[in-house]
Design goal:
Layout (H helix, E strand, L loop, with lengths): L1 E6 L7 H15 L3 E6 L18 H5 L8 H10 L2 E7 L7 H13 L3 H4 L7 E6 L12
Parallel strand pairs: 1-2, 1-3, 3-4
Amino acid sequence: MNVLLVYGSRNPEGQTARAGAALALGLSEMGAWSEAVFLPLIEVERCRQCDDNGWGTCRSEGVCVIEDDFAGVVERIRRSDAVAVLTPVYYGDLSESLRAFLDRLRRVCTHDDGKVGIAGKPCIGIAVAGGGGGDRRRVW
């Protein structure tokens, strides 16, 4: 089994990375293989909402027109047997890099061609809270 770990954390030694390393170790012990991609370390732009209706070729063809590393990660997902999506929790939400990636993936997958190799694929989400989030005593 081949599992792609998609990280929304830029720190390859932080808490989210350690959670992923534990997952990778467990997968390895089961005889599976895993590889990691750290989204903040590659180029993945936010969706441009290309046309007047806020869509584009994502909706009509299942592909994104932005020329960055997004398509390569999507292809790696298609080639994998399963996916793990890992994110630190920032302000009660996903990291910005993971949000940008998933927003574009969601749009591409609205078209049947975009769903190929993705729809129905086993996926696990891991959200890691904690870290250096500043002074937790502060009241907003």
